[in-house]
Amino acid sequence: MSVKKIAVLTSGGDAPGMNAAIRAVVRTCAYHNIGVVGVYRGYQGMIEGDFKEMNARSVRDIINRGGTILKSARSKDFRTPEGRKVAYENLKAAGVDSLVVIGGDGSFTGALLFNQEYGFPVIGIPGTIDNDIYGTDFTLGYDTALNTVIEAIDKIRDTASSHNRLFFIEVMGRDAGHIALNSGIGAGAEEILIPEENIGLKKLLSSLEKSRSTGKTSSLVVVAEGDKIGKNVFELKEYVEQHHPDYDVRVSVLGHMQRGGSPSCFDRVLASRMGVKAVESLLEGKSNYMVGIRSTKMELTPLEKAIKGSSKINTELLRVAEIMAT
Ligand code: ATP
Fold first, then answer.
1. Atom number in ligand 1 closest to CA 15
2. Where is substrate annotated to bind (predicted)?
3. Is residue 319 a part of any domain in this protein?
4. Cα 115–Cα 121–Cα 127 angle in degrees, nearest 5
5. Per-residue model confidence (pLDDT) at position 325
């Protein structure tokens, strides 16, 4: 089948670099003289027929913008066979024959189902700040989020050291500790709590005590939101205060600011490469793959593997973090 028109959508949580990826998909289509439509609000827009014909000029001035001009959404209707049928009919009516989905593993699961039911060619681009997708060393938005986080922690460090305080800083990442581990090292945290490594409350206390005894007057502890230590950051604060009433403990939950902002150069280049690879893979007749980057090279991973696999934490970084906290 020759590809005549591709639809592109962003789905699930937004991430910086999604716009740069939309731009890359649209421009690659223009380069190869094939049509492209943008679908608004992810799968929900597919069901509601919320499409817009795009060309190379429709994506001007967006490479530097966070969020997604196509908007993102979570669609309950797309989880039903009836919803997917309407989506398929809308795409057919618009002359669309292939799909690029920019999103996370949930979005890829939907894309795979859609392919299985209608034989519709699909390629995924991993867009999430969490870096928790198998088959790529980096997801889109992760590098920008790391930079946002260390900028915020640097500022917290100023106030922490001025008041000799201990700060628990919660960062995003869902069930993965990539953001916490890397930003923790990058921002010079004393301790980093991630779901992949349950250090336990006792060890946390002894580590903080050791920090004090070696002359540190303030401490930063970066905590991944999915940490399995059994306590959230506010409970951690209470726990430490119970055992060390003399500690001046504060909590900062960075929250959604981590999702926003202008994408880093790394994410813009990654998005551009992923967009080109996604469209050209469809043109080569490939389907049901996720585009990723591995050891600086663009690679395809079967969507099924990307969904089921998990991204591993780099254990060397754990050791670096431990040594840096000396
Ligand atoms: P994030 O990593 O930000 O959560 P995600 O792509 O994993 O992104 P989800 O909310 O899990 O986000 O999925 C996005 C959308 O994909 C859902 O709202 C739904 O429309 C579709 N989807 C997810 N899982 C399925 C499924 N099992 N069947 C059909 N569609 C699905």
1. 3
2. 128-130, 165, 172-174, 225, 250, 256-259
3. no
4. 85
5. 87
Prediction pTM value: 0.96
Q: What is the dihedral of CA 17, 285, 90, 118, to 10 degrees?
A: -120
Q: For 205-223, how does the pLDDT look when each residue is reduced to its tens digit (9 = 90+)?
A: 888 888 888 888 788 999 9
pLDDT given for residue 235 in this prediction: 92
For atom 11 of ligand 1, the residue with the nearest CA is 106
With respect to residue 322, please indicate whether it lies within any of the assigned structural domains: no
Q: How many domains, in total, are found in the chain? A: 2
Residue nearest to ligand 1 atom 26, measured at CA: 110
Pocket residue to mutate for ligand 1, from 10, 44, 76, 79, most atoms within 8 A of Cβ: 79
Catalytic residues: 130
**Which pLDDT belongs to residue 226?**
86
Domain assignment present for residue 289? The answer is yes
Average pLDDT over residues 259-276: 98
Rounded to the nearest angstrom, the distance between the alpha carbon of 47 and the centre of ligand 1 is 15
